[in-house]
Amino acid sequence: MSDILILTHADFCPPGHLAEALDAQGLAFDVLRADHGQLDGYDFDRPRAVAVMGGPMSVNDALPWLATEQAALAHFIERDIPLIGHCLGGQLLAKTLGARVTRMPYSEIGWQTLRRCDGAQPSPWLDGLPETLEVFQWHGDTFELPEGAQRLFASDWCGNQGFAWGDKVLGLQGHPEMTEQLVRLWVHDWAHLLDSSQPSQQSGEQMLEDLCARVTALNRVAEVFYRHWLKLAVRETV
Fold it and tell me: What pTM was estimated for this model as a whole?
């Protein structure tokens, strides 16, 4: 059993570049499918860092395993260990911290420009990132900010793209974990969800344009988040 835990919720929403970054550092990690009940019986006092990935469901769906996962996240927050949430994972963290997650009147899909919002109090989660950056999106829900959270990013279509809560929790609305393979998979398998009448969405062709360069830049952004997350985890074990 590893000290790094990654929670997933669908086979097409894997850890992606997060797993690549951990493998590159020779770090072991456990991946559990929360939607398959794999949190049942798990020792919540074991992990020293937890990442929560995306999924097609809503945090407001009446699924028993979602309650189990939120209870686990509440325990991790109480333990004050580093947490990072991606899309559904960010929404789960927001809801666990008492914020509302609601349906948007449209879907934000494709490569979107995010603006930093940390302002006069720069967040260590964003160390070295520019004022604007591009992150892949695929969501129809959005979170409100938990009480006491610092807003980190906004886009034209979603005002809350990321937040830091305390010094160890990062919730993200987008998908910094994407790889070329994942983008191509989603564009192919989820083409039926695209709606050309929504200006908040890109077409499949637009999402695949300059894909290698875009994913390379996205990986660099993701590694800023992951580097700080792991630094916090190491600090907790010292």
Answer: 0.96
